């Protein structure tokens, strides 16, 4: 997924109410799954397992209704 596909999260940078946290987390989990797959195919099992565990923890936190802190990408500023 490239950066332009995330633009729908940036309706108004000063208004965080427009953030769809479900879509944001789903997108992140999909990206992580792709990265885990790539790491496994490259033989980097240790890093793949670490990232897989991080994804499971992110999904569990969302499922349990925990609060999230979201910061827009500030690298362009």
Structural features, described:
It is built from two helices and no strands. The mean pLDDT is 83. By secondary structure, it is an all-alpha fold. Helix 1 (21-41) packs antiparallel against helix 2. Helix content is 52%, strand content 0%. The protein has a domain at 20-67. It has helices at residues 21-41, 45-63.
Radius of gyration: 14 Å
What overall form do the CA principal axes indicate? globular
Number of strands: 0
User: What number is the mean pLDDT?
Assistant: 83
User: What is the helix fraction of residues, given as a range?
Assistant: 40-55%
Note the run of SSEs as H and E: HH
Kindly, what is the distance between the CA atoms of the first and last residues, rounded to a whole number of angstroms? 21 Å
Structural class: mainly alpha
Largest sheet: none
Uncertain spans: none
Number of helices: 2
Q: How much of the polypeptide forms β-strand, as a percent range?
A: under 5%
């Amino acid at each position: 997924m490239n950066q332009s596909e995330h633009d729908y999260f940036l309706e108004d940078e000063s208004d965080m109410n427009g953030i769809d946290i479900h879509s944001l987390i789903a997108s992140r989990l999909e990206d992580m799954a792709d990265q885990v797959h790539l790491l496994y195919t490259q033989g980097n099992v240790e890093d793949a397992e670490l990232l897989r565990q991080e994804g499971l923890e992110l999904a569990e936190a969302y499922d349990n209704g925990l609060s999230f802190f979201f910061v827009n990408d500030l690298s362009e500023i």
